[in-house]
Write a structure and sequence with these properties.
This protein is α+β, with helices and mostly antiparallel strands and 467 residues long. It folds into three domains: 133 residues, Beta-Lactamase, CATH 3.30.450; 82 residues, Signal transduction histidine kinase, dimerisation/phosphotransfer (DHp) domain (Helix Hairpins, Orthogonal Bundle), CATH 1.10.287.130; 157 residues, Heat Shock Protein 90, CATH 3.30.565.10. It has twelve helices and eleven strands. A five-stranded mixed sheet has the order 6-8-9-11-10. Strands 2-1-4-3 form a four-stranded antiparallel sheet, with helices on one face. Strand 10 and strand 11 form a beta hairpin. Helix 2 packs antiparallel against helix 3. The chain is rod-shaped, with a radius of gyration of 51 Å. The two termini are 50 Å apart.
């Protein structure tokens, strides 16, 4: 048997489905650092690219201005020299200007295309991309026209622009790295409260359910999470305490009939018994077994109600008729105590009639158990709207303490445990079942007690109201 169990446990799921893999975790600090670094690089890159473009345009404007200014000087000097000494004077003046303007190259040609003047070998490559040129024309006294071209060496400015580009790229990368590192450090510092909360949460276990998490310096963004978690822990603690109490009560309730069964059976087996004595023992054991079965059935019903099972609705029925049927079922115990019942009001609702009769029976049985001898019981039905009603049972007897009223519908709760077992035996689930049936009908239980009058009941809602 153990071997087969092991094989079954190790077998893959039906249908060949593989277990879902856990999603990969990631670091919030690293992700934020990377995103902000990339964003910084992009932002700075765009800004510095604009600055680089504007600087390049300024260089180009400066070069054009220099070429235009020098071309004007060349035209004026050539015209004046041509007027004074002809072509020889013009060439002399051009050579003189070339010595005083290094980084430039000038050449001139006649109207027929023949070369008129050319500077000595330039100190730079006039055909390189960093050289800029501009054409000019010099009218002569004879009515001719000299065509000229001046070329400016811009390599220094180009080198400056390249250095500036490298500097800007370095600034972008350094800025991105600095922002990424600073963000990572700042995020780690900012996430320390989360690590603190995680450590506090890890310290909570079944022995410390009353412990709550908090921060020395409350953070506005984290406080709602802390409040919700503490609220959840409060509900878990309350449920855990109720569960422990419920388990203890169940053990206590089942221990009594089990002890009776064991004791009576041992007594019956201690010596020979007659058939009549054995039958009496079996009848007594049957009563105890029926009591245990009632407890188990009630517990199963409450478990179903706790899972959110809703009542099955039928056609609208008269609640007063259901109450009358339950009253007839309780005539014997009422006659025994000299009680009488009156029914006031009525409502027609779509409900689960068997469940409602069970709830009314529990309420009426509870009222009969604690009502004064010879007093009157009253079942009141009050329509609240077209889709709901309230029903409660009123009896005259000992008042219930105000501190006990909130727990009246708890499982196995008894307001007076000392007197309920022998005089009025019951296992303490009746009102819990009433509350469960009310919830299954989208209602709620209610109880009040003062001045010797106790009212216990519940509300009901139809499907239309709950939809």
């Amino acid at each position: 048997m153990n071997t087969s169990t092991t094989v079954l446990d190790a077998a893959p799921p039906l249908g060949g489905d593989k277990p879902a893999e856990a999603p990969c975790t990631y670091s919030i600090g690293r992700r934020l650092s990377l995103l902000l670094a990339v964003q910084t690089v992009i932002g700075l890159g765009v800004l510095l690219a604009f600055i680089y473009g504007a600087t390049s345009m300024l260089f180009i404007a400066k070069h054009e201005e220099e070429l235009r200014s020098y071309s004007t000087v060349l035209v004026d000097v050539s015209r004046e020299a041509y007027a004074q000494g002809g072509e020889a004077e013009v060439k002399a003046k051009m050579a003189w200007l070339a010595e005083r303007r290094p980084g430039t190259f000038v050449q001139m040609s006649r109207a027929d295309g023949s070369e008129f003047y050319r500077d000595a070998a330039p100190t730079f490559d006039v055909n390189q991309s960093t050289a800029r040129g501009m054409d000019f024309a010099v009218p002569t006294a004879s009515g001719g026209l000299l065509q000229g071209k001046v070329v400016l060496d811009c390599s220094q400015d180009a080198k400056t622009a390249r250095r500036m580009a490298l500097l800007l790229v370095g600034a972008v990368l350094a800025g991105g790295a600095l922002v990424g590192w600073g963000t990572f450090w700042r995020v780690r510092c900012s996430l320390r409260p989360l690590l603190d909360l995680a450590a506090q949460t890890k310290a909570i276990d079944a022995r410390r359910l009353g412990q709550r998490i908090s921060l020395a310096e409350p953070a506005e963004e984290l406080q709602p999470v802390i409040d919700q978690f503490n609220g959840l822990m409060h509900r878990v603690e309350r449920t855990y305490v109720q569960l422990e109490g419920f388990n203890a009560d169940v053990a206590h309730e089942l221990r009594t009939p089990l002890a009776n069964l064991i004791g009576q059976t041992e007594v019956a087996l201690s010596r020979e018994r007659s058939v009549a004595e054995l039958e009496e023992t079996l009848h007594s054991n049957l009563e105890e077994l029926q009591r245990m079965a009632a407890i188990v059935n009630d517990m199963l019903f409450l478990a179903q109600a706790d899972r959110g099972v809703k009542a099955r609705r039928s056609a609208p029925v008269s609640l007063a008729e259901l109450v009358q049927q339950v009253v007839e079922f309780h005539e014997a115990p009422m006659d025994e105590r000299g009680l009488r019942v009156t029914i006031e009001g009525d409502a027609h609702l779509s409900v689960d009639a068997p469940l409602i009769k069970r709830a009314i029976s529990n309420l009426l049985g509870n009222a009969i158990r604690y009502a004064d001898q010879g007093s009157a019981l009253c079942v009141r039905i009050a329509p609240e709207s077209e889709s709901g009603a309230r029903l409660w049972v009123e009896n005259t007897g000992p008042s219930i303490e105000a501190s006990h009223l909130p727990r009246l519908f708890d499982r196995f709760f008894r307001a007076d445990a000392a007197r309920c077992e022998m005089e009025k035996p019951h296992h303490g689930l009746g009102l819990s079942i009433v509350a469960a049936i009310a919830r299954m009908h989208d209602g709620f239980p209610a109880a009040e007690s003062s001045g010797g009058t106790t009212r216990v009941g519940f509300s009901l809602q139809t499907n239309a109201a709950s939809a």
